[in-house]
Amino acid sequence: MLRRSILSAAFRGRATRRPFSIVAPRGASVGKERPSDSQSKVFGFRETCFRGYNGFHGLRYQIYQDGISIAEKGPDPFSLVADELSLLANRLRSMVATEVPKLASAAEYFFKMGVEGKRFRPTVLLLMSSALNVPIRESIADGVSGGLSNELRSRQQSIAEITEMIHVASLLHDDVLDDADTRRGIGSLNFVMGNKLAVLAGNFLLARACILLASLKNTEVVSLMATAIEHLVTGEKMQMTTTSEQRRSMEYYLQKTYNKTASLVSNSCKAIAVLAGQTSEVSMLAYEYGRNLGLAYQLIDDVLDFTGTSAALGKGSLSDIRHGVVTAPILFAIEEFPQLREVVDRGFKNPADVDIALGYLGKSCGIERTRELAKEHANRAVLAIEALPASDAEDVLSTRRALIDLTHRVLTRTK
Amino acid sequence: MLRRSILSAAFRGRATRRPFSIVAPRGASVGKERPSDSQSKVFGFRETCFRGYNGFHGLRYQIYQDGISIAEKGPDPFSLVADELSLLANRLRSMVATEVPKLASAAEYFFKMGVEGKRFRPTVLLLMSSALNVPIRESIADGVSGGLSNELRSRQQSIAEITEMIHVASLLHDDVLDDADTRRGIGSLNFVMGNKLAVLAGNFLLARACILLASLKNTEVVSLMATAIEHLVTGEKMQMTTTSEQRRSMEYYLQKTYNKTASLVSNSCKAIAVLAGQTSEVSMLAYEYGRNLGLAYQLIDDVLDFTGTSAALGKGSLSDIRHGVVTAPILFAIEEFPQLREVVDRGFKNPADVDIALGYLGKSCGIERTRELAKEHANRAVLAIEALPASDAEDVLSTRRALIDLTHRVLTRTK
């Protein structure tokens, strides 16, 4: 019963975030996420849980497999927007470089290639801009369709830039908050340069993002990005200040994950659509893509914190659990081994408790079920793209394939 | 020559910030701030420098005296908006109280009466709202004048609220930045509760301010407040990362002071006017009032850091100079005693250097000239109010008198 109630709470949690149902294809009730339906599907998986994650089958996997098969024919999603990404990176770099050197080196720290990887968020947003490049009735009627396209693209690039600035600002401030001494294998900025500069550099990026946002002069877009900023803060707050009960709650975990990771990419995806003058239906599909991609991304992140590049437990950095942050794999494991709960409640201040938790996690289906949940979200992201208005323009089709490909890469990434 | 060049740079610095000349009454060229003109006026004062500050005479003082005589007939400016201030304080308090207790106590820390004193910024903004309550041609033509007044007032209250949130957020983050262990006699939040919570609480307030700002759906107002946020960051950056030359520059000091203190109150005053649909001329008068009041406030703050409640040097907290922050009194003293420059260049890491600097300051007119500069700005603030469109409505007149009274209180305050 406990297991059931936690799971249904988890799904209720996600359902309440989703103002628009997109996952109801072929007459199925999947998108409505009725607890009984969701539970039977997840329990269906649980009963066939293996060490690997090839035990999954059913409708959604089929959809997902279709996604992969389409995507595999397409080019590398990052290469489609490589030129624009490079321009964006240069703009961000020169923006910080025009400031005093001390601050420039501080803010540039996170803009270097290799630290932030492939600029995931700007890539998604630039691909989304092209994927939504379909005629809109009203703008054609006004005769403004063709002439505005360059200006529109430039405004959409600004959203990508604003989003990256907000993201990097949150990393800088999170480093102060977490008192982390490493982030992604490199000494964190506050460790290298002190809390003072990390706070200032983060504020500097946030302020520049606000200025650029204001210059777009679109109140709905301002509101979307302000919401994303607020969610980042709320998410951090939810992580910092939890009761024991909240730390054990899947609903709380998913809400925190939405706030900390998925809200920024989902609201910025929606902003891309809003700037293009798309209908509210299309804007919500863009939002749903971003939201589900973001959740899938974070769920896999949580798995990799335990497994690292290998499939073996304990090979990851274990930084979450060592900081007392409880993520999906452990929450699923508690359902199978209720005795793990009291270990979690002790807060992992004692390193021995980390080993005990890893022992239970290894015996459980926690890792597999987390991957499974990530796949569900990836499937929903694919469905959102497939529900976009039809187009036969090659750049629209190729960028939509690339967005679907990204959902695959999120699931299979190893770092 | 050095003295002249520093002073002219100082005035050039202010002149470039001022897009609109309001200080050119009765055919005088004062408002244009030609270096030769400004210098002669300041040198005119220097030659009659006393320990007190009753050595000042001339046109501006006359204007200012008029200001005081008008103001002294009026009621306490704070009492005019006491009910609204109390509502605003309650809204801010309940906003933080709806969050988890840990964060609520963190953010509420700065909202308690006694810490933030009399809520200076919201008072200015609510008074400005009433002071600008004059008929506007366009809105009368549209027939929207009367019906909107309640809604307008509520939107102007939101600006007061947003401004206070931004201000408190900057205090919270400045405490982390400065690693200050005390602020206004009370242990700073980061000392009491840690950097983590101070950063988070500041971000929380900034995020809420962004959400409230977005809800006003006015792109010009968003832009004004985003500019104020950016200036706060730039000002903090200017203070943290200076060359020796910058630390000795009056121009740099005034620019930093505008960014750190005057920009928020000036841009929010302008936002009050913009929301009311006022002309750009009236909006700029509101901006000029806020800018000059803010500069006067900070200049007196810099004096009080040396004198405290008494007129005697060394009775203040000396927190600026002990943190190596060089303010107007010392900059003026350097002009009289160039040998003070090398003491300043050593950065006041050695407490003996603070005593040496105080010795030079005592022999100089630094304190008096700083008060004098504050008076000049207070006069300009008065002139901005006097230049507003005529009105015979009693509430308009009484709030204008209160705004003029505030400039007096800023000059005569002892804490």
UniProtKB/TrEMBL annotation, chains A, B:
**CDD domains for this protein:** Trans_IPPS_HT
- Entry's localization field: Mitochondrion
Gene3D superfamilies, alphabetized: Farnesyl Diphosphate Synthase
| Superkingdom of origin organism | Eukaryota
GO CC annotations, alphabetized: mitochondrion; transferase complex
Q: Which Pfam families match?
A: polyprenyl_synt
Any single GO molecular-function term of the entry would be: metal ion binding
One biological process term from GO is: ubiquinone biosynthetic process
What cofactor does this chain's UniProt record say it requires? Mg(2+)
Q: Does the keyword Iron apply?
A: no
Q: Which UniProt keywords apply?
A: Isoprene biosynthesis, Magnesium, Metal-binding, Mitochondrion, Transferase
In the record, the note on similarity to other proteins reads: Belongs to the FPP/GGPP synthase family.
Q: What is this protein called?
A: Solanesyl-diphosphate synthase 1, mitochondrial-like isoform X1
What species was this sequence derived from?
Answer: Ananas comosus
Q: Print the organism lineage.
A: Eukaryota, Viridiplantae, Streptophyta, Embryophyta, Tracheophyta
> Which gene produces this protein?
LOC109720647
